[in-house]
Amino acid sequence: MSFLRSLFSGVSGLRNHQVMMDVIGNNISNINTIGFKSARVSFSETFAQILRGATQPSGESGGTNPIQVGLGMNISSIDTIFTQGNLETTGQVTDLAIQGNGFFIVKKGGKNYFTRAGSFRFDANGNLVDSATGAIVQGKMADASGLVPPGAKLEDIKIPFGQKSPAKATSVIKLTGNLNAGGVPKGNILRSARLYAVEDGNSDVNDLLATGSANTMITGMISGSTTVTVQDGTKIKTYTYVSKDGGVGDGNFHTLNDLIKEINNDFAGSLFASIDSQGRVVLTSSVDQTVLISSNNRNFESALSGLNGNYSSNSNKLSDKFSHVARADDLLINLRDAQGNDLGLVAGDTITIDGKVGGKAIST
């Protein structure tokens, strides 16, 4: 009987190792199969036959181990190994591969199937299908704008032949490249903050910088809409900002000098306006009176607010300092920084500019 038991154990090993060889052979035969995943065989020991049971220790002797004979082995499992394979370029635009976890879904005979094989092509009806089985690849189709709607359902992936996309102008172009490592480095172009210069009264009021009460740019001046109202003890006059002034007496202005001329024309004998060397509007009263200047442009009204108040005879008041963006014809001594502060340059100052051209130092 024990001889037969040994034969049965050996036969179980032969039979089950034959299954292992079958699995290995299948792995080798599918070495070039698209999307194939190899398998492995795991073995387990068969329950042993007990010839004598174990005994527990007694007061005079120790316990004994059981006597048992193994009856061979079984196949525990055959597992598919889902390790990521190598991706290869096939030259076929419809061939697809999955990097990482997941499966393609294909449909045939009303049933969905999962596969890792991505050898696809388009059939005569425009369906994307599996090349071997003809199963239709499933997915979520984009709408006319190229976006997949939220909640879109799985359906046949289909691209009708002859379908055209409407032409659309290019909105963004990205260009990349590498600099020549052996090229001669060029100098950096550095830009300082914007420079301003003392306003002489001849610049457009819009975009002037006001320093004092306003401390901001005069912006939002609208031609034909923005106004300035001046009133003394006896008279009220309103002047309108325009893109081009027609002359004194039309009630319009484009520059500070235009506004000054209108005030001097309408309030002759009562008020006299001018602009000083610091770019401020100077308002002088020839009599005792109260003057109020207002505007529907908040920044401009704030810049002129220093002219408001009670005047005694031959007294004057000053507005904010006005500055315009520096021009090529402005004198260096009239330049100001971005906050409207004078740079402090005077005649006789020396300006030195240092730098490098092609790595060679220069100084001017």
From TrEMBL:
<feature type="domain" description="Flagellar hook protein FlgE/F/G-like D1">
    <location>
        <begin position="97"/>
        <end position="161"/>
    </location>
</feature>
<dbReference type="GO" id="GO:0005829">
    <property type="term" value="C:cytosol"/>
</dbReference>
<dbReference type="InterPro" id="IPR020013">
    <property type="entry name" value="Flagellar_FlgE/F/G"/>
</dbReference>
<dbReference type="InterPro" id="IPR053967">
    <property type="entry name" value="LlgE_F_G-like_D1"/>
</dbReference>
<dbReference type="InterPro" id="IPR037925">
    <property type="entry name" value="FlgE/F/G-like"/>
</dbReference>
<dbReference type="InterPro" id="IPR001444">
    <property type="entry name" value="Flag_bb_rod_N"/>
</dbReference>
<comment type="function">
    <text>A flexible structure which links the flagellar filament to the drive apparatus in the basal body.</text>
</comment>
<keyword id="KW-0969">Cilium</keyword>
<dbReference type="GO" id="GO:0071978">
    <property type="term" value="P:bacterial-type flagellum-dependent swarming motility"/>
</dbReference>
<keyword id="KW-0975">Bacterial flagellum</keyword>
<dbReference type="GO" id="GO:0009425">
    <property type="term" value="C:bacterial-type flagellum basal body"/>
</dbReference>
<dbReference type="Pfam" id="PF00460">
    <property type="entry name" value="Flg_bb_rod"/>
</dbReference>
<dbReference type="GO" id="GO:0009424">
    <property type="term" value="C:bacterial-type flagellum hook"/>
</dbReference>
<keyword id="KW-0966">Cell projection</keyword>
<dbReference type="Pfam" id="PF22692">
    <property type="entry name" value="LlgE_F_G_D1"/>
</dbReference>
<comment type="similarity">
    <text>Belongs to the flagella basal body rod proteins family.</text>
</comment>
<keyword id="KW-0282">Flagellum</keyword>
<feature type="domain" description="Flagellar basal body rod protein N-terminal">
    <location>
        <begin position="10"/>
        <end position="37"/>
    </location>
</feature>
<protein>
    <recommendedName>
        <fullName>Flagellar hook protein FlgE</fullName>
    </recommendedName>
</protein>
